[in-house]
Structure formats: C-alpha cells, structure tokens
Amino acid sequence: MLSWVGEKRLLFGRFRKTGSALAAGCLAALITNITPAAAPAVSSALPGPPLVGFSFSPFSVPRLLNETPTAALQTLVDRLQPDLVRLPIYWSQAQPWPDAFDFSSTDALLAIIRKHNRHLRRPTRVVFAVGARNLGYPEVYLPGWLARAQGNNLKKIVATPAYATYLRTVVDHYAQLPELYAWQVENEPLDSVTTNIDHAPALSTTTVDNEIDAVRAGDRSHPIVVTTFNSSHIKLDKEGSSPLAWLYRLLPGPKAVGHPAETLQLGDALGLDVYVVTPSTPLAEDPAEERIAWKSDTIIYWSTQARLANKQLWITEMQGIPWLGAPGFTSQDLVDSASAYRDRGASVVLLWGVESWLFNGEWMDAGLRAINTLRSP
What we know:
By secondary structure, this protein is of the alpha/beta class. It is 37% helix and 13% strand. The protein contains 14 helices and eight strands. Strands 1-2-3-4-5-6-7-8 form an eight-stranded parallel β-barrel, surrounded by five helices. Helix 13 (331-341) packs parallel to helix 14 (361-375). The longest helix is centred in the C-terminal third of the chain and has 21 residues, at 288-308. It is globular, with a radius of gyration of 19 Å. 47% of the residues are buried.
C-alpha cells in the first residue's frame, strides 16, 4: 500500500451537501464590455472509447524523489501516452504580484507536452483548470498579496476586479494555444469541502455562470467543463436531483451528496469526480467491488442526463490511488474501475493520483492496464 497519496486530502466535509443556496456574486458587473458568448458546439452523441488522460499538479510531485515537476511530467506522458492532461493554472502562481503575471511554471509543463508530441500522430492535448478553487488540497489558491489585503472570504474575492483580471489575462494568454482542448472553470465550485480558508468555499450557480461567460468572452472555440462529485448509489443521486430533494434530506438514512444536477446546467460538459474508498465511505460498510458497480450505474445515469441536455459527461477524477486516511483501495480496484466505467457514456476519463505512480511499479503497471482497458473498443 502506498504511504504517500499526494495532496488530495478532502475529509468528511467534502461529502456534506450544501444546505442552502449562497448569495450570488457580481463578477459579471466587473467585466466591462462583455456580451455573453454562445457556447461552442459540443457533440453529445454516445461516444466510442473515451479520451483518456490524467490530472497533473506540480504541487503533487513526490518530494521524496527530489524530482522536478517537469521531469515528473516527462516520465508520465512518455509512459502513459495520454490523450489529455489536465493542468491547473493556480492564481497564486500566475499572479504573484498585484501588477504582474508569471506563466513560466505552466509554460515549462507545456514545453514537455510539445516535446512529447513532436513525432506523434495523435498528440496529447491540455485541459486548463482556472479559478480560485483549483486542483488538490488546500483547494483554494489565492495570491499572498491578495489574501493579506482582502482576507479569505472566497465569495467576496471572486467578485473583485483583481479576480476578473486574472481570468481575463489567463484566457487571453492561452486561448490560441494549439494544444488546448478545453477549459475547466473552478473545481467543484458548488460543493462545500475542506479547505484552508475560514469561510465556506461553495460558490453560487450565478457566480460560476458569470465566470463561464468571462472565459467564453475570450475564447469561443473551446468547451468548458464544470466539476462536482456525486453519491455512491444511483438511488441517492435521483433523490438529490428530484423536486422532493428537500424531503429526502429530512428523512433518516443516507443522503445525496454533490451537485451533479445543478452543475450539469452550467458548462458544456458535466465533470464527475469518482471515488470509491474514502474516509466517509469506508470498506467496513460495503466492499470496493460493490461500490465500483454502483458508481458505474451512476455514470450511465448522468451520461444519459447529459445527452438529453445536449452536453457531455466526463469523469474528471477517477480514483487512481488510496485516499489519505482511507486505506483499502488497491491496484486491482483501479483496473476493475476501468473495466466498469469504460463503456458507460463518458467522453473523457482523467485519472487522479498518477504522480504517486512514479515510485511504485505496481501502481504504474496497474495504471497502464487501466488506460488500455478504458481505450479498448
């Protein structure tokens, strides 16, 4: 079993559904002369094998190896041959000073992908995650200068001119990038999760919709995915998205979690973060193989709902390592998950935790098997 599981440390708070809608932000009012752009055309037809790839964060590279993020990414793209790599553009890195931007860390990772693509017929492309909420714990990445001036009330911060400038500058900088496949706006923005800030991190649908309009104003060509997590069982997902959801919350027993129905209304694709063994879903309750089967059913359900809305369903995080504090997810569970999810209607599958495979041959081998399975006809 791995002793290191990266920076993904969401605890029980991740799986508590937000109790009430939050106040709408006013980001749109701060972005002048913008007319909301039409969404790019996205095929919602039932796909063949999905595009397969992984998420990569420079903060998640195992420090025990004394390896640089660029060297780690080089090894991963060469070994795993991904169709897509999801890269975060952390606000804290992109704008280290109030009046200056620095894209050197992201550009260094892009240079690795370009080098990898040099002689490939099917090149690796990039999904950029932008937002104050971004990949991996502590979830919220604010520049130090901003936190000192504004505090850490996220709902207020994303309504500032500084945040509008960050979004606009990032999109303008990368919108024409040949390797760009899609944008992700915020990370699980409607959900309350464990973070490093004092105030609740969940954003309103209006705030996220305004951010999407801001991204589309600078790039009308690439689709946008918005992410959330969902319940362990399809019954709970249906209860959580029904008109009687308020009633189910009052009844005893398991409750629906996440916001897949609301998130589906926002972007061009619904991104589900799919985990099987977590601190709030321990193996003492149900075995991993049963949870994998349940998740497979929920993927079918949400891919159907996405098609009905003329959108796509992506698995934006497929569990690829054990969760800190919740042992029991094995390399065989990774392979079995790929087999269960591969033909359930997802257009994209991105594995989570691949940085830890760099120093564990068992998990690297299992990851390669999983990727081959996901791509099989």
